[in-house]
Write a structure and sequence with these properties.
Strand order of the largest sheet: 2-3-4-5-9-10-8-7
Number of helices: 9
Shape: elongated
CATH topology of the largest domain: Sortase, Chain: A
Oligomer: single chain
CATH superfamily of the largest domain: Sortase
CATH class of the largest domain: Mainly Beta
Order of helices and strands: HHEHHEEHEEEEEEEHHHH
């Protein structure tokens, strides 16, 4: 009992530290990442049909209420519109590619602005809304540098692109959206305040096409917290803990890892002092 009393405050401090990390991370502001599961691959193949873009929405900056509303509809949106996956390792981006550009899909992932254009050919354009104050969707593409790798996959092939330009343009420069002979990937989001007339455009040239057989082995070894999260269901605090632990183990948050290790070392020192005093 005496030892338990001595350990109470160090353990309570550790619990408060973990709670603070959870609050700072805030699971509700995490992006809608996607894992290349068999079920998702089947959805991609089912949804890859030619579609007109009559409901094409305008790319804008929107608020966090729109983000929360989109997340509630995530399963339905994926079932109806999932056609692929976009990944950019340099900014830790992993988003579903959705069939058409509507307010719902632009708030959920990377939407095909021209769904009639096949992935891996011509000017393949993906767009998303920009949520002010939240590092989700394509918010961080402004940090991409020339040479950064971007990949898209439709479940059968993976297309590897290399960034060649990253710029801000006026929304009137629609000629940039025209078809091209050279295969390229173009990412678009708005740049600036609400109702801004400017757009962030990142362009990458196609450098490699990999059939599914060649990427299957590497895909199986990719570390992801998604399988853990799916098992946890709606227990939000456990989901947050799983995300934090996964990113620490994957080395994606080195400063946070150092902070946790320092806190742990201080706690162990205090425990040793109290127990053996």
């Amino acid at each position: 009992m005496k030892i338990i009393r001595k350990l109470f405050w160090p353990l309570a401090f550790l619990a408060l530290t973990l709670l603070a990390i959870k609050v700072l991370y805030d699971v509700n502001l995490t992006p809608n990442t996607i894992e290349m599961t068999t079920q998702n691959r089947r959805l991609m193949q089912k949804n890859q049909t030619k579609a007109t873009n009559k409901a094409q929405a305008q790319i804008t900056s929107v608020d966090l209420q729109d983000l929360a509303a989109a997340k509630k509809q995530l399963p339905h949106t994926l079932a109806r519109d999932l056609v692929g996956q976009l990944q950019i390792p340099a900014i830790d981006l992993n988003l579903p590619i959705l069939k058409v550009a509507t307010d719902q899909t632009l708030s959920t992932g990377a939407a095909q602005y021209f769904p009639e254009r096949p992935m891996g050919t011509g000017n393949y354009v993906l767009a998303s809304h920009n949520f002010i104050g939240a590092h989700v969707l394509m918010h961080d593409i402004g940090m991409l540098k020339t040479g950064a790798k971007m990949t898209t996959t439709d479940g059968t092939h993976t297309y590897v692109y290399q960034v060649v330009s990253n710029r801000v343009v006026h929304q009137s420069q629609t000629q940039l959206l025209q078809p091209t002979k050279q295969a390229q990937l173009m990412l678009i989001r708005c740049e600036g305040r609400l109702h801004t007339p400017y757009r962030r455009i990142v362009t990458g040239k196609l450098v490699r096409t990999i059939p599914r057989v060649a990427v299957k082995k590497t895909a199986q070894t990719t570390f992801s917290y998604q399988s853990v999260v799916q098992r946890l269901g709606h227990k939000q605090w456990l989901v947050a803990a799983a995300e934090i632990l996964a990113e620490l183990l994957a080395g994606k948050r080195p400063l946070l890892l150092i902070a946790v290790l320092l806190v742990w070392a201080v706690l162990m020192f205090l425990i040793i002092l109290k127990v053996f005093k």
